[in-house]
Amino acid sequence: MPKVIVRNGNVDGALRTLKQKNVKDGSLKKARERQEGYLKPGVKRRLDKKEAIKNSRRNNRRDRNN
Fold first, then answer.
1. For the chain, how many structural domains are there in total?
2. Is 6 part of a structural domain of the chain?
């Protein structure tokens, strides 16, 4: 679990930092996967492939804009 220190009463900045750390760490995604329960290997493979396609399209869009 990521920890963030609030400095100078800047709660908004600390919250933003915490959210970024959670995304990078993947803890929210892991919690959601545990909540869904067991997935059959074929279903998990399909979901992973779908997510990989989505990520590659996002990266291609990002590269095209730069």
1. 1
2. no
